[in-house]
C-alpha cells in the first residue's frame, strides 16, 4: 500500500481493504487477548525474582510500556512501506508467540542470574531494570508495532482514521477478555505455563489468519516518490501529541490511585485486580469505538479532543467522589454473599461505577488525536506510531509518578487533584489555540479564551470537592459499612508507597493495626497470644538463636518477642512498607518492647522474598508473618520454592516458624498452606491458637534436621533471671510454664498426611494459594477447619523429651483431646 494520500480507489488493495477490515478487527481482538495474558503472566513471573514492591512493579511497568512505545515509533523506521502490511502484522504476531515460549522457559535462568548478583540500593534498582529490559523489551517492541503495522493497510483519511480507532477498540476488547480469562480461569485452575500456551495459540491463529488474508489481498508496493522532501508538518501537531500524552498520564495515574482505593473497598485479591483492569479496558474499548465514529464525522477533531479532556476533569472528580463519599457507604455487607460469584458481580458494578465515565473519554481521545494530526501524514504506520508513542510516554510518566512518588508524598486526595489539573491543562491545549490563516499559525480566539476560562474555573471548583480516604475505609475496607456508627477512634491513617495503613483504638483500649483494609494485628488477647507464640517459639526451639530474620513487621509484637530473648544478638526485620515501622514504633511500643528502637534490630525496607533471595546472610531462625494469603503477591511467601530458599539460609539446627490463619479462609486454602510447608519440612509441627474454645490461627514449625523439644530444659531456661522478660511475656498471654506453651501442640506433618491428600501445593509457577484464598476472604469457618485437623492429633512419642512427670502432664492434655 502506498503511503501517499491518494483517493481510496487509486490503489490496488483499496478495493479489498474495506472487505477485510472487519476481519482484521477480529484479529486485533485476539491480539489484545494474548497481550493481556502475557502481561499478567510476565509480571507475575518477574516479580517472583525482582520483588513485588512498588519500586519493582514500577520498573516492570515502565519497561513493558517503554517497549510498546519504542515499537510503535520504530516500525516506520525499520520496516519499508513496500512490505505487505498484513504479512508484517502476521510476522509480528508469530514472533510474539515465539518470545512467549522463550520467556516461559528462559526467565527462571535470568531470575537465577539476577538473584546471584543482585545488590540493594540504586545499583540493585538499576539491575532490576536491566533484567526487566532483557526479558520484556523484545516482545513488547513487537506488540507496540502491531497497530502501526496494520495502520498501513488503511488510508489517513477520516474514514481510515476511524477504522484505526475501531482497531484500537477491538484490541482493547480482547484485552478485557484476556485479563478476565487469565485472572479467573487460566491461572486459577492451571498455571503460568498453560496460560502462556493459550496466548501462544492465539498468536499462532492470528498470524496464520494474517498470512492467509495477505495471500488473497495483493499489495501493490508504492512507486519511488520523485519528491524526496518530507511531508510538511501539520501546524499544531505538537500540541496534539502533548495533549494525548497528558491524557495517557492521567489515565495510568488514575488507574494506580483508584486501584489503591478500590482494593481497600473490595479486598486486595488477584480477582479484584482483574476486575479493575477489565473495567478500565471496557471503558477504553467502548470509548475508542465512539471516538472512531466521531473522527469520521466531526469537522474539528482537535476541538472534540479538547472537550473530551475537559469532560475528563468532571469524570475524575466523579470518581473521587464515588470512591470516598458514596461507595464506602453503600449498604453492602460482604458476609451475606452465599457465593463468591455474587461478590464478584457487585464488585464489577462498583468498579464500572467509578472508572467507566473517565475510561470512555480516555478511549475516545486516541482516535480523535489520530484525526487531529492525520491530514499531513502519508504513512499510516508513522501516524499511529507517533500518537501511540506520545500516549504511552505519558502513561509511563503517570504510572511511575503516581505509584512511586505522588501517593507516598501527597496522598490519593491530592494526587487526584493533580490529575484534575493535568486534564484541564490538556483541554486548554486543544480548546484555546486555533489555526489562523495561511501560512498557518497558532493564535487565540475569543471563543477559545472563554472556553479555557470556563475549564479553569470548573477545574478549580471540582478540585476542592475531592475528599481524603475515610479513615474507617483504610481500617476496615469492605466491612466499613458494618462498623457504622464507629465508637472507636482512628489514631493514624497513612498512605505509603505500597499500602495504606491505619491504627485505631477501641473504647475498651484495644489497639488495632490495619493494613489491606483489615485488622492485621492488635492488642486483643487472642492476637497477642498468637504474635508472641510465634516470636517465642522461634527463639526457644533452636539451640542458639543468635541471628533471626523476621518477615513482616506488622505491630512489631512478634519481632519484639524475638528481641527479648537474651541469646538473640542480631535481628533483621524485612518489611515492604516504610510506614509500618514508623507507626509501630509510635503506637505499639508498649506491646512490642519498643523493638524498632532496639540497637540489635535492623529494619530492611524490601519485599521479604526479594531480600532473602538476594542476601548472603544465614540465620539461626526465620519467622514469617506476612499479609493474608489472599492479598495479591502475598502467596509468593508461601510457595514450596520459597520455603526451600529459606532452608538454604538456615544455619545448622535452625528453625522456621510460619503464621497460618484459619479465619477469612477456607479448608482448601489452609490445606494448601500446610501441605506446601510440610512438603519443604516433612517433619513440621503445628501449634494451635484457639479462641472461645475453637480454632483461630496456627503456628507451623519446620527444621532441616528432625526436631526434639526438651521441655524441662526450656522450663529451666525460663526460670533464670536472664529469661525473665521472656517468661513475663509468656505469662501475659496465659502460658505460665513450658508445658502450657507446648500443650498447644495440634499435629505433625505425618499425622496430617491423610487430611492433606487432596491439598494443592502452592508453587511459584501457579501461586495456587492466592486464588484459593481469594475465594474465601469473607468466610469465617475457622472452628470447623481446626476441628478437622484435631481429628488426626495424637501424642508424638519422639518429639518431646523431659522428666516423666512433665511428659505425663503434656500427654494428658494432648492425648485427652483437650483444647489448649
Under CATH, the homologous superfamily of the largest domain reads Vaccinia Virus protein VP39
- For the termini, the CA-CA separation is 79 Å
Helix fraction? 55-70%
| Multimeric state | single chain
Number of discrete domains: 4
DSSP strand count: 16
Unreliable spans: 1-18, 224-230, 435-440
Predict the CATH topology of the largest domain.
Rossmann fold
Q: Judging by the overall fold, what is the CATH architecture of the largest domain?
A: 3-Layer(aba) Sandwich
- Going across the major beta sheet, what is the strand order? 9-8-7-10-11-13-12-15
Characterize the structure shown.
- By secondary structure, the protein is an alpha/beta fold.
- It has four domains: 1-220, MFS general substrate transporter like domains (Growth Hormone, Chain: A); 236-469, Growth Hormone, Chain: A; 471-515, no CATH class; 524-709 and 745-794, Vaccinia Virus protein VP39 (Rossmann fold, 3-Layer(aba) Sandwich).
- It is built from 27 helices and 16 strands.
- The strands form four sheets. Strands 9-8-7-10-11-13-12-15 form an eight-stranded mixed β-sheet, with helices on both faces.
- Helix 8 (270-297) runs parallel beside helix 10 (340-373).
- It is elongated and about 95 Å long.
